[in-house]
Amino acid sequence: MIVSGSAILEIEPRKGEAQLRDLLRAGDVWSVPATANAWFHCCEDQAASVIAFIGGREANTSDPGLCNPFADDTQGGSGFHHRLMAQPALDRPWGSLRVVEADAFCDPDALSAALIEVSPSSQTDLHWHLNTAVWSICLEGEGSLTQVPAGISPQTTFLKPGQVGHVPRAEGYYLRNDGQTMLTVLEIFRSDHYHDLSLHEWLAASSVESIAAHLCVDVGMIARLSHAGETQGRLSTRL
Question: Out of the domains of life, which is the source (predicted)?
Fold first, then answer.
């Protein structure tokens, strides 16, 4: 992802094939197949801040020719990059969410990601990603990432720009904004799609007591997190 500035991404899909050239701006994300050669360079004298995650998921196919790298779409992509900030955000009681999944890219090993913005004094729901681990990279603001591992006390990592948190697969967690400005976090999933299970969805099918017993945490903690989410939802509706 380009965090700030702009850069040119050049790709040689396969040895000897014609090179592709993309201009990436702040908020753009990209994915390059393992079989391709790629390199960045800045535009003239402009600097760029870039986050690169090296490594993919287990591929279903090894043939990157299954998609057309020249195919354009409504987001202005070339098959290798996607204009995430041009995508409408999904409103949440605590802020907003933008999700990009693997099918946005011409890469059989592409990952999925989410750009999360949490409003001041708000927190996301306690939730789980059952299909993958999560890397949370703080881009702007200050806050915390609280993990709720089964059987042990919750663990909190304080976030500031450049701080990275890691949540194992199927472990509950939530993000909280402790600052005065928006907390912006890029989450990367080693999966081709985004899927989460929120505490409220779990509560709809089970009781606070059974969830607390399953996670080996205090009943009061689950009740407090549930109440916090409901309160934010009511405030959002009034606004």
Answer: Bacteria
